Amino acid sequence: MQLELIMSSGFSVFRVAISFVIMCISYMPTIDSLPELSPQKYFSTLQPGKASLAYFCQADSPRTSVFLEELNEAVRPLQDYGISVAKVNCVKEETSRYCGKEKDFMKAYLFKGNILLREFPTDTLFDVNAIVAHVLFSEDVEYAHLYFFHCKLVLDLTQQCRRTLMEQPLTTLNIHLFIKRMKAPLLTEVAEDPQQVSTVHLQLGLPLVFIVSQQATYEADRRTAEWVAWRLLGKAGVLLLLRDSLEVNIPQHANVVFKRAEKGVPVEFLVLHDVDLIISHVENNMHIEEIQEDEDDDVEGPDIDTQDDEVAESVYRDRKRKLPLELTVELTEESFNATVMASDNIVLFYVDWQAVSMAFLQSYIDVAIKLKGTSTMLLTRINCADWSDVCTKQNVTEFPFVKMYKKGKNPVSYTGMLGTEDLLKFIQLNRISYPVNITSIQEAEEYLSGELYKDLISYSSISILGLFSPTMTTAKEDFSEAGNYLKGYVITGIYSEEDVLLLSNKYAATLPALLLARHTEGKIESIPLASTHAQDVVQIITDALLETFPEITVENLPSYFRLQKPLLMLFSDGSVNPQYKNSILILVKQKYLDSFIPCWLNLKNTPVGRGILQAYFDPLPPLPLLVLVNLHSGGQVFVFPSDQAITEENLVLWLKKLEAGLENPITILPAQEWKPPLPAYDFLSMMDAATSQHATKKLPKCMKETDVQENDKEQHEDKSAVRKEPIETLRIKHWNRSNWFKEAEKSFKCDKEL
């Protein structure tokens, strides 16, 4: 897949013989590859018809240091096109109209020879790609074109890729939706009631066109459907409906079924014997919908809330909203130090030209609205596009980024999801210091019941209490380090008084131990601490926070995936059957399923689950459906018999059959791994390496910071919250088939509750 933006005026593009002059206010001695000239020297080097890039600068201003770094990176690629780059230092001895007013320094000037061709605002040249693109595509244009090139389908490199023109206006939301629609399946085969079919196209606001087929004409119908799919790409989803496999009746005369994107609208059964008639029917209905949207600004758009892209969701949700920025304090280079040292602060580091930053700014303002008048924490923000040196000194190199500053303490980096609720939870849970020092049995009981911090229970439904004898000094220090590391994500406390044995005996805990209070369930569990190293304690607590029978979503899948156990997954088209859930929970409670990850997936909440099922089954069976997916080793997929009820007895007997080899897998996932075209694109490996380094390093000790302007040495985690892998390679590693059932059978005999 390739995406190309072509700035065109009759599709003629000025690509060579360009001179590009940029004026700035700053001087960066560390940038070596940019030639530094005086104005007179620069203009004397210009040659007719030749390209040149100059940057007029005045010294002693740090505001454009980031831009200069990007400009330095653009030198080599521009030289490949015969375009030179230079930086011109403005001096008092020489006069030049490019060394005039300050506003002139915020523009980039494009020359051919000594003729000025074009001016660019420097804030549009935010990175090396933007600089090169503006220079190479520099001719004045009437309008821009956006094309999506379908190169994945081309096996022969000598063939041209198909391309699709984006017809909507070039707005952030339209571009996002266009890319999503281009990446949706071209053609899908289904054998179910069209009224019940749900695909990604409907979520993107597109109607569905079903080409009705039968066995005798299957090949011809499929070719027709593919042709229609290409003609309607980005306008509608196209599906091949297999009449012979349907349990519902479709009128014999109908050969096309049309389903609108709006919920609850009945499908239309049509007789259209010409491809052009199908196209016209779709386009005519789309035209009506566009007219209605123009007439009524409040018409609901596509269901962006169901997507896994928070940027699109936030941008679309708040596209007409005026942000009350006055609820936050805008910081500058002059005010940053004084503000963060005067009171407790939350600081948002962002750049105003980046879409993710601006989308998260909306969530940040939402948090300010919720905290208005109730919090002593001051919410502030600093635009790193204007004050790059401040952000660099605070060790902020990626955006958006949030830090919490408290007087006399190290700044705390926020590494959660970029959403309102998660950030609000982080702020509220940081109102107190962790771990909480509990000093009496009564206070410990209030802590475990949720009464001690009942105003925080809505943000953390689980509380952790570490139990230690007074002499366990090292263990207490490690637990305190772990509690400090987890602050903002879970409530932790510590009890190590002389009467600690009263608590440990009551909850059958051998010291040292953790008590885990699940407030919504009213349960308290004890977890022994075989190792008290801080990183081990963090891992134990993180694992304990996982749900017993979770609903799998795009966001939480990595947390369970890393456990490297087979998935015992119940697929459901809605809420899970209470009887099925109860049966599985009973087996979990009795530890019969410790070797698995019992979970369920709601296709209505996570539509990608339908694509997973399509990789396992052909055609799709009726739901609910229980499958055992051995992803980490072997790739086998087993399905629970659909003619049996999911009970404790039936489930255990089925697992015994699997162990005895009496059940055959319905499919075996391919063993080959997905690989990127170039090592530089292997982002998943980069994420794994970063995660591994973070997990193995010793947790940082907290040291008092006397000057917040000093470099922040703490390392923050990668905010790539969701690791997405192709369905074909969704595999679990290191599962020994000969061992898992023995463990389950052993647990079955023990009949021991948590």
List the helices and strands and how they pair.
Layout: E1 2-8, E2 19-23, E3 36-37, H1 39-45, E4 53-57, H2 65-79, E5 87-89, E6 107-112, E7 115-121, H3 128-136, E8 143-150, E9 162-165, H4 172-183, E10 187-190, H5 200-203, E11 208-213, H6 218-231, E12 237-242, E13 256-259, E14 268-270, H7 275-295, H8 310-317, E15 329-330, H9 336-342, E16 345-350, H10 355-371, E17 378-383, H11 388-393, E18 401-405, E19 412-413, H12 420-429, E20 436-437, H13 441-449, E21 462-467, H14 473-485, E22 491-495, H15 500-506, E23 513-518, E24 523-528, H16 534-544, H17 557-561, E25 567-572, H18 578-589, E26 597-602, H19 608-616, E27 625-629, E28 636-639, H20 648-660, E29 667-668, H21 683-696, H22 737-750
Parallel strand pairs: 2-4, 3-5, 4-5, 10-12, 11-12, 15-17, 16-17, 20-22, 21-22, 25-26
Antiparallel strand pairs: 1-8, 2-6, 6-7, 8-9, 11-13, 13-14, 16-18, 18-19, 21-23, 23-24, 25-27, 27-28, 28-29
Task: Describe, in plain words, how this protein is organized in 3D.
With 754 residues, the protein is an alpha/beta fold. The chain has 22 helices and 29 strands. A 6-stranded mixed sheet has the order 3-5-4-2-6-7. It has a 5-stranded mixed sheet with strand order 10-12-11-13-14. The protein has a 5-stranded mixed sheet with strand order 15-17-16-18-19, with helices on both faces. β23 and β24 form a beta hairpin. α2 packs across α3 and α14 packs across α16. The longest helix has 21 residues, at 275-295. The radius of gyration is 31 Å and the shape is flat. The two termini are 50 Å apart. 29% of the residues are buried. Residues 1-31, 287-310 and 693-754 have low confidence and may be disordered. Keywords: Membrane, Transmembrane, Transmembrane helix. The chain crosses the membrane at residues 12-31. Residues 329-428 form the Thioredoxin domain. This is Thioredoxin domain containing 16. Residues 186-276 form the TXNDC16 third thioredoxin-like domain.
